[in-house]
Amino acid sequence: MSLVVWHEIFFVLSGVLSTIGNQWLYYQGAGGDGFSMITVLPGYIGMIFPLVREKNRKVFVSASPSIATHRLVLFGCFCDISGNFVAALGLYYTGSGLYQVLYSSVVIFTALLSWMLLGSTLSYIQWLCILLVTIGLASSTGVGSIQAERDLIVTGSAIVLLGTLLKALAYVIDQIILNNSSLEGTQLCYYTGCYCTIFTLVYLSVYTLP
Fold it and tell me: Which residue from 93, 77, 95, 86 is spatially nearest to 165, judged by alpha carbons?
């Protein structure tokens, strides 16, 4: 089995397990009604963790991006943090099962934004798949047993979809940076991890910890 396949398997498993873990934290009262942001910090720390190796630090230090590139990276970080914040809030209302289904819409939003902002072409099959997935996502909302529960699920679903839209925008911005050869993939990962970790720690110190 190729290394790429293993990476894909670990990526899927980590997404599922992290969502279940986040939901468990909410059940324990650690989620702060979805506003605490403690569930997204480990992901950002993981992006900068490879910097403990000297070789990776040299790659990071060797980067000399322009001010315009830094601004674009910061905008991507803002979209990423906002997307995680909004999606985590939606998870509090929808639960881990429905959340995981809705979060898959990030693929749709990324494809559409790439088509609009990057000029990427989509085949008829891809458009058909987007339509089918959209229909499936729409049919998965509003499944509560009573009206109040159904309204809460619909609201939570809309919040999750907004979060995935922001995440998709962050991915497209990263692709723009890579297409412009402003940063290499590893350098972009490190810069994004550093900025997002700093912003999240500031938020935690101001809102969550008090």
Answer: 86
